[in-house]
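S.,

As promised, the flavin-adenine dinucleotide run. Input:
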Amino acid sequence: LPVPLGLARSLARRHGSRTLVGVAGAAGVRAMAGRFIAGEDAADALPAVRRLWKDGIATSVDLLGEATVSEAEADAYRDRCIEVLRTLSAGSARFPARPLLEHDQHGELPRVNLSVKVSALTPHLRAGAPGRGAASAAPRLREILRVARDLHAHVHVDMESLDHREAVRDLTLSLLAEPEFAAGPSAGIVHQAYLTDAAAELEVLLGWARRTPRAQPLSIRLVKGAYWDHEVVEAQQAGWTVPVFTDRRACDREYERLTDTLLDHADLVRPLIASHNLRSVAHAIAAQRARGLEPDAVEYQVLRGLGDPLAAALAAEGLRVRTYCPIGDLVAGMAYLVRRLLENTANDSFLRAHASGT
Ligand code: FAD
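Predicted complex:
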């Protein structure tokens, strides 16, 4: 690490990622960011994506960026997404065959998998932004879905903070229900277990899946949630009930309960278990085996740089694994790193270990 972890944290909190890049030095930051980020753009990231595929690990590529504040930036993000789909599709034709990564009981799993953020597809989703909310993201997301359908790629819509949940969910599900997308593309959404109403929200997703038959069933990526601090602080400042569990064990228990529910519906949706917590992952594996579900019926997901040894171990067990691979330039990469650093203290030991070269 070019700067001590504690200093990095306090600089990041006080000055943001641009200043931190300046302080830490571009070369040092680039070296560290390389552990977490697959490349500056799709062409740059393709060798890393190909290496993972060769090792029997699928990928989902995510474009990093700063907050979208104008229609032009939202257009640019859409165009970059389409460019990633095209570049990776062209490059993945030569990937070696990996049946576990390419099929499950529902059918084909695309080699190319892109994660997108609705807040990057419109300037109107930001807190306090005037205007039409997620609706203005619809034409841009529709274009991405069309390209993905034509290229047989998968699009996964990330989940953001609670104030965006309804907009992100309704936009995603309403587009996927459009007749032009009945046959594809393969697509998915994210479900956050740290929200105290997560069980009810999962029923909303399962209810939609029951009512909306598609050739490619909805993928549901179960995560704990990346905006814990934001949700707590915002609720406290506004005097609202805190919407997330405030006890780690309660959050972990909920994650296990939701894993069970998701795996009970593996015939209806594609369950994706995204966690680096060994207990949470072990619970999912036990639940998968207890239900007699085939190895290809559940997918395990990790973030590049944070879950690499876990991904390798799960793949060696014959399970399907996908690594989430961010793509972006130095400043975007630094902002991503800072978010991961601040996300939870469990990352400290990981970063210290890597900082000292172990
Ligand atoms: P753990 O250490 O087991 O859990 C840490 C999590 O616990 C924190 O992130 C927080 O959610 C929760 N937590 C922290 N403190 C407390 C507390 N005091 N009380 C209760 N709960 C607490 N997140 C999103 O929000 N949207 C996404 O689209 C998204 N996509 C992801 C994709 C992949 C492939 C992966 C692996 C993660 C993704 N995440 C996403 C991040 C995820 O939500 C978690 O923040 C991250 O994985 C850490 O959780 P864990 O289970 O790995 O680790």
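The pocket of flavin-adenine dinucleotide is lined by residues 158-159, 190, 192, 194, 221, 223-228, 245-248, 251, 274-277, 280, 301-303, 324, 343-344, 346 (CB under 6 Å). The radius of gyration is 19 Å.

- D.
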